[in-house]
Amino acid sequence: MNGPQAMTQDIILETQGLVKEFKGFVAVNDVNLKVTRGHIHSLIGPNGAGKTTCFNLLTKFLEPTRGSIRFNGNDITKERPERIARKGVVRSFQISAVFPHLTVLENVRVALQRKMGNSFHFWRSEKCLDSLNDRAMELLTEVGLEEYASLVTVEMSYGRKRALEIATTLALEPELMLLDEPTQGMGHEDVNRVMQLIKKVSANRTILMVEHNMKVVSGISDRITVLARGSVLAEGTYAEVSADPQVIEAYMGSEQGGH
Amino acid sequence: MTVNKNIGFAALFLLGLLAPVLIYPVLVMKVLCFALFACAFNLLLGYTGLLSFGHAAFFGLAAYAAGHALKVWELPTLVGLVFGTVSAAALGWLFGLLAIRRQGIYFAMITLALAQMVFFFLMQSSFTGGEDGLQGVPRGTLFGLDLADDMTLYYVVFIICAAAFWLIYRTINSPFGQVLKAIRENEPRAISLGYDVGRYKLLAFVLSAGLAGLAGATKMLVFTFASLTDAHWHMSGEVVLMTILGGMGTVLGPVVGAGVIVSLQSELADKVGSLVTVIMGAIFVICVMAFRRGIVGEAMALYRRMVGEKV
Known about the structure:
The complex is a heterodimer of chains A (259) and B (311).
Chain A: H1 4-8, E1 11-22, E2 25-31, E3 34-36, E4 40-44, H2 51-58, E5 66-71, E6 74-75, H3 81-87, E7 89-91, H4 104-113, H5 133-142, H6 158-171, E8 176-180, H7 188-201, E9 206-210, H8 214-220, E10 223-228, E11 231-236, H9 238-243, H10 245-252
Parallel strand pairs in A: 4-9, 4-10, 7-8, 8-9
Antiparallel strand pairs in A: 1-2, 1-3, 1-5, 5-6, 10-11
Helix pairs in contact in A: 4-5, 4-6, 5-6, 6-7
Chain B: H1 2-22, H2 25-45, H3 55-71, H4 77-99, H5 104-124, E1 141-142, E2 145-146, H6 150-172, H7 175-185, H8 187-192, H9 197-223, H10 233-246, H11 253-272, H12 275-290, H13 294-310
Antiparallel strand pairs in B: 1-2
Helix pairs in contact in B: 1-6, 2-6, 2-9, 2-10, 2-11, 3-4, 3-5, 3-9, 4-5, 4-9, 6-9, 7-9, 10-11, 10-13
């Protein structure tokens, strides 16, 4: 790769030959992924295709066996997970990742707080965090949760917890958001709401998401990568990948044996 | 709510001032020291989600360190207490470095193993007096006050414990405390928000160890001796019991738990002898099976339900 400037100008995230082996089992096999800045990029594939493992590698929650990860042209393969987050790659989790016994406002504030630089100050009152409340409320308003600010998070519905998770992620102003099945386990209305929300927050940033719901994938993705058994099977727009015979086979099983 | 809380703390403070007039002051001091020990432990278990099974090491080491400073080096009382506390905090830093990378039962086992090493060190070393313990430590004076008098000492101990209690309360309700709670609630999420959770856990561990040490050093001052009991793993178990019985993750739970356990032990010791251990075990089983939130936790839940029903 010569001339990294020209090559990486519009590629925000790139993996080369990414491999993850678990004792005798290859979960992610030679994945070369390129995510274009400003896109909503979906990662799809049948169960066990390695999508979540891929996410864990990109955010360094797992250590890749081989291969490299570049973010904005810089190699981040050796970084620790909290450093990746600080660089602007922030992930969500498959199971809603909130702090259940903090209030909704506190959930967002914890994310805002780190930049204040007083997070080790055990001798100060938490009142000094009140200056973050306005910004936290803005973020809650953005996801439609402003009226629940003082509620203890555990008492909210599942769909709202996912929305809160997005607000918390947004608080870090990530350049690249990684959403792991943002609509999983949701009812029809919640799915629509979260889909609109993702569309809305994708302005000025890049989103890479794992998603099973094809309506969401086809509705908002700019680009789709299909994974199967740890490898990239196809890549393109929804129209392209949905017409790909290999993709159809991976999803439906072999043509005669599908059930 | 905050007004209620302030009234509650003021009432407790008054109670603390009056207690030695009503009850034998040495017993109240013992309760206070164990209450501080349990509160320090709760900072880790209740607010960070780390179960240490080696807190006796900090309690015991600080008792010996402070005792040695006062008896052998003949340092002033205040310096002795500070020396005990700092020794415990330093040991906490070392324990923390080794243990915080592990979680759950592994964390507990590493802290237990390290604490056992400290126990054997204290048992074998010559300066600790081995099985006899370090006896006849002078209480000395503090700001011209003669601490040999139990009443005088009581108010010194009370102020030390109240100040330490305030520091713990402040820590829980600080920016740092917010991050600790976030780690307790969902560690991977805290990492994904950019927090280096290891460093936060380490600071929590050092604070907890230091305050546990302050409790141990103060208890040594009250009884004028340090013994192997202070560093024995039974002591680590007892502080777990106090915290869980009172209510882990509540501000006052450990204080209540320590009060109940210490007064039960002193009440029952002459009456049932070694059966005390059996009774303690039974209390623990009942607590874990029937009221997991502990005394204070259950009381708060009941209060919330009652208030909630009214609305």
